[in-house]
Write a sequence for this structure.
């Protein structure tokens, strides 16, 4: 795994003009408005060069088997294990608390839901996403990782639904990335059970 990560960093210089030794992910983030087609070609070249890994290479979810698509985000940082790198220490600390319920609102294809299901084998995972395509991908990745039996895939969440879900377990973990709807959803008056959750 370490060899693949070093290869990935080396490829940032070899395959992506202007990378100047920075990691592929940092370089891609720094680019201004790259076209989707260009990003897809660059990512495909990198995947081919590192042997098209079918699992996350590093980070808190290393070893998680993954598909070839991400929903609403880039696939390459997820496969490389650098996706939302600034949260890795937080995730590790939360895993150590022995969370029994994870509620993931805006779960997309399930990077956090499936990753946490693997790392928290006794936890129940409840996901919400309004996109049928993302729910389909989430189901597929959960099957790849043999955790579908512990992931409850749901559609729409509002404060009342969230409050009912959180009643199932004290000290639940709420992960929320729902494109601005957080302003409505994370409302302690409408969802008082949030007071006992980690968000």
């Amino acid at each position: 795994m370490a060899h693949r990560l070093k290869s990935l960093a080396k490829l940032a210089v070899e395959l992506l003009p202007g990378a100047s030794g920075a990691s592929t992910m940092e370089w891609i983030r720094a680019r201004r408005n790259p076209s989707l087609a260009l990003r897809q070609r660059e990512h495909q070249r990198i995947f081919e060069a590192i042997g098209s890994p079918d699992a996350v290479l590093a980070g808190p979810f290393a070893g998680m088997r993954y598909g070839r698509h991400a929903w609403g985000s880039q696939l390459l940082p997820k496969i490389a294990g650098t996706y939302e790198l600034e949260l890795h220490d937080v995730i590790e600390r939360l895993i150590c608390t022995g969370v029994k319920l994870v509620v993931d609102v805006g779960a997309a294809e399930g990077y956090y839901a499936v990753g946490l299901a693997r790392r928290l084998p006794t936890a129940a995972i409840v996901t919400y996403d309004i996109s049928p395509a993302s729910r389909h991908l989430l189901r597929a990745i959960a099957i790849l990782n043999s955790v579908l039996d512990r992931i409850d895939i749901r559609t729409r969440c509002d404060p009342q639904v969230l409050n009912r879900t959180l009643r199932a377990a004290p000290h639940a973990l709420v992960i929320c990335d729902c494109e601005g709807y957080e302003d409505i959803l994370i409302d302690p008056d409408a969802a008082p059970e949030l007071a006992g959750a980690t968000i």
In short: Confidence is low (pLDDT under 50) at residues 8-33. Residues 5 and 14 are 14 Å apart (CA to CA).
